Amino acid sequence: MSLHDTRDMAQGLPAASAAPPIIKVSGLSKHFGGARVINDIDMEILDHEIRCVIGPNGAGKSTFFKLLTGEHRPSAGEILFLGKSIRNDLPYQRIRQGMSIKFQIPGIFPELTVHQHLELSLYQTGRNSRDNIDELIERFKLRDDAYRLAVNLSHGKKQWLEMAMAVSLSPKLLMLDEPVAGLSMEETFLTGELIKGMQEDGLTIMVVEHDMKFVRQIATRVTVLHGGRVFADGMTGEVLSREDVADIYLGKS
Ligand SMILES: Nc1ncnc2c1ncn2[C@@H]1O[C@H](COP(=O)(O)OP(=O)(O)OP(=O)(O)O)[C@@H](O)[C@H]1O
């Protein structure tokens, strides 16, 4: 049994779930006119998980992500964050309550350096000390680029800067939308190690992702969406070895 499997078991067993879920979704649905894109989803994310949400194209992953971040309002159902309903809260209200969101496209200010980006995001928390900025710069491998304009960073380093900014808010839940899209294999692996390091430091993380190798690297649990419903949910090794999960990617199911 690998270390990864052991971690899966620790995350997967009901005994580990004494703490209330970070997120609890019940009966969540989203319809756009007649298009029923998300249908009656129930899901819980527990403290210290890295939950990957996967599924074939059009499964509803982005729509589900947007329901959790507040970009979309549900047509039906409930979303509890740390036990409290956030169903009608706007994104900034969810962020204030401890959700931090990194979208797929980096949102970088062209006129600011890496250091200034981190100063600005830490400023909102009142913890914008030199030590805290340095710690983020080290952790996210931005030391050589600290005083460069962020707009000139590689795509990979822009992603890491955005992740650093998201983490600087000391969230209870970090939400990542395809964090390795467009990254090289090496950058992808390093991003996975950064994410696992954040989890080891106590963060709970939800990731919408396409890259299965990356999902195997980081996920403690996996939720598979298909046709806007939960098709499978459980420990990473178990879910990813299921034949019917492979079949939906091949269009057989
Ligand atoms: N605003 C909308 N109005 C109507 N249909 C929509 C809307 N947004 C998404 N859809 C449809 O909902 C379905 C799910 O889309 P969504 O983008 O959530 O899937 P996804 O799993 O993220 O796909 P991909 O992996 O290709 O990004 C698709 O068929 C899409 O066309």
Automatic annotation (TrEMBL):
| Gene Ontology CC terms, in alphabetical order | plasma membrane
List the keywords (alphabetical): ATP-binding, Nucleotide-binding, Transport
Pfam families associated with the record: ABC_tran
Origin superkingdom? Bacteria
Presence of keyword Membrane: no
Example GO molecular function term? ATP binding
* CDD domains, alphabetized: ABC_Mj1267_LivG_branched
Query: Where is each ABC transporter domain found?
Result: 23-252
Q: Please give the InterPro entries that the UniProt record associates with this protein.
A: ABC_AA/LPS_Transport, ABC_transporter-like_ATP-bd, P-loop_NTPase
Q: Which PANTHER family match?
A: CONSERVED COMPONENT OF ABC TRANSPORTER FOR NATURAL AMINO ACIDS-RELATED (PTHR45772), HIGH-AFFINITY BRANCHED-CHAIN AMINO ACID TRANSPORT ATP-BINDING PROTEIN (PTHR45772:SF8)
What is the protein's name according to its record?
Answer: Branched-chain amino acid transport system ATP-binding protein
Q: Which organism is it from?
A: Pollutimonas bauzanensis
The organism's taxonomy opens as: Bacteria, Pseudomonadati, Pseudomonadota, Betaproteobacteria, Burkholderiales
